[in-house]
Amino acid sequence: MKKIGWVAIAAAGLLGACHPVSEGYTIHGTLTGEHVDGKVYLECLDSLNNPVTVDSTEMKEGKFVLSGAVSAPSMHYLVIDTNRPGEKADLRNRKFRAMFYLDNSDISFSGDVATLPGYYYSTTRKTVAPAVTGLPTHDLFLQMNAGLKPLTDTLSAVNERYLNEYYVPELEGKEVDESVGKALVREERKWNDRLLQAKLDFIKGNARSVVALDQAIVLFSDPNMSFTFAQMDELLGWFEPYWKGTSEWERLERTAASVRWMAIGEKYKDVEVLDRNGQTVRLSSLIPEGEYVMLEFWASWCGPCRAEIPHLRKVHEKYKDFAIVSISVDEKESEWQKALKEEKMDWTQGRMEGGIYGEAAQQYHIMSVPMCLILDKEGRFYKSNVRGAYLDAFLEDLYAGKL
Questions:
Q1: Helices marked H in 260-388
Q2: Fewest C-beta atoms under 10 Å: which of 120, 192, 204, 308?
Q3: Cβ within 8 Å of residue 381, ≥6 positions away
Q4: pTM of the prediction?
Q5: What distance in Å separates the CA atoms of residue 209 and residue 217, rounded to the nearest whole number?
Q6: Which residues, 6+ apart, have CB-to-CB distance to 282 below 8 Å?
Q7: 247-259 vs 210-221: helix crossing angle, rounded to 10
Q8: ∠ CA(258), CA(260), CA(261), 5° rounding?
Q9: Residues 114-165: tens digit of each pLDDT
Q10: Pair 224, 384: CB distance under 8 Å
């Protein structure tokens, strides 16, 4: 299968849906440190990914017990709140959240409140994952993470170099060596491919497990995904013998269906947009035929979008026959027109009426900007979210005849 952009393994925790109860687990909790009195909540996610409290209890002197049952293993969250009533809540240092795959078993949960992961992420607070034992399904999740760690560590190091040596300096307007950025993104692409293959090997070999199913949903949910229809069907086929007819199978199929519209090789959607003069036109009237095209979505209010425009100007000046079509999701035409003048965006422009919540933006599943898609000469999706040095590397390969 082709490369998909890397997604943190922990993202699988966002996907475990609630199960009805049957028979039995008991969670024995022991926490050390200061402020170890409070409330403990066991949560899962419903079919719409909304948190649902399954049970709660009091924690006294760092001790608590929760008992219940699940019909099948699924991702749950333990929320520990040590904030005192009447005081301003501290969601980073006094409220904590840990995730794990819950089995019907005897479970031990332990940690130090000084280092438990905060309910909200903090860049200054050191965190250590709690020790959770007695969970066979969660053990498989940890084994997967451990097996992928050499790849994720290497990829993180390459990402850090890209940020420090190319991306941040360019955003700050400093002179950067374009060859450095292209070399780093090619290195990242190599490790991304290896990581993807390792994930797919795990998924195929453990298709009976909800851990593998959640990982497949993570891959389908990745905004950088680049599956073809055939590749998506192959992945679904690994799960069908074990999961068809279940709510989990429906969730997997639903996720795959939501991204099939932009599978590699599929034609772009020809929606209505507004041109520079405020006239309603078809998107196809802005996209030249027989050329590779960068279809880029942005907004005047989007800081990262504005920060990348100087790079797009350089690309537009260097590659005269490479088409860039920028489509704004600004709700107000005046703000869009003002930004066009300020940024000197003299290539093809359009705007989606209604902004990011408008009908056209919804058809393109635009959840955030910037977002860009590369179309091939036939107007079919070829690559996604190719920006910065990734765009430079793509264009170098394109004009060198490597694509």
A1: 303-318, 333-343, 359-363
A2: 120
A3: 262, 263, 264, 265, 266, 267, 268, 373, 374, 375
A4: 0.86
A5: 13
A6: 270, 271, 272, 273
A7: 20
A8: 90
A9: 999 999 888 788 999 999 999 999 999 999 999 999 999 999 999 999 999 9
A10: yes
